[in-house]
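FAQ: What does the model actually see?

It sees only this:
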Amino acid sequence: MLQDANQKIDRLFSIDLLKAISIIAVVSYHSVFVPESTYPSAFRLMDILFAPFRFCVPVFLTISFLLLKRSLEKKAQAPLYTSFKKRLTRLLIPTLFWGSIAVSLRLLGKANTEESLIVLILQGKIFPGYYYLLVTLQFLPVFIVLNRQLVQVKNFFIILVLQLVALSIVYASNLGMLPTDILIFLRSASRPFFVYWFVYMSLGAYFYNNWSKLVRISNQISVLVKIILLLSTSLIMIAEYNYLLTITKGEVVPFEYAMFSCILSAIVMFVCFSSIEENQIPSPIRTTVKLLAKYSLGIFCINGILSLIFLQLCSHLFVGMNFTFPQILAIKLISCFFLLTVSLGLSILCERIRLRNCVS
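And it is asked to produce this:
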């Protein structure tokens, strides 16, 4: 079964497709370059409308651990330390490289003290999306040590239940049912805090070990049912995010991924897309999917840094303006295409100047 999974996941188009869809969703969150003060009446509606796109980080984390599991299985005879060292180096290169660029830009802007920069780094806020790199780093040793236990059905459900309990505590804290110190700590720890993410480690290992079964289930589900599943999940995510906005009084960060529906979205995305094969997709779209998937790491980091630069520039250009909902939606869609294209182009350029490990 593992050998079969290895052969199928080696260059699986459905994984590339999930990465491509997810990176577009990531960029969409960073693509409004005008300050929130320019669209106060449309801000909440925009936030809620794009809530279903929050599948992106859960899917990326699940794929990351799935591919790590594949790598460990391929080199099952290698010492754990060797696997850990190799993967750690692979993760540290983009983390340090893009983190250093973001720090340099903030120092040039002279808007941050040394102390505040350290806090931003630890909270994963030195640029949008940086927390993702910190999450993968902190779970690396845990996954390598526990990877064989994670694939067991019993352990998978234990971890799932523990994750649901952790998210329930987050909700209870925001509802004032627990001491305020817990909420203060959760906010200070921000998104890299492990309690928001550990279920995706288990999902990645479990999906890898049961890939053939997952594809078989996906093949048995009709296109219509898949569309209904995706739409239903989107509506659930909108409803939960709206509730989260209400109980946090609009201060949803860093809890925007601490939603039960985020876990559901990752599962539904894999169930719906795991059976899609390359020959089912038109050639131009296929080429785009492979490009976005190959450079998803570079796009993830570059778009976050560029979004800060563009936001800073546009904050001066659009002072005093007031955009309606249709206007800000159009700005977001156009900016998303622009940011995605530029980030992809810069990722390809980085590879050509021998910075491949930073972008792919």
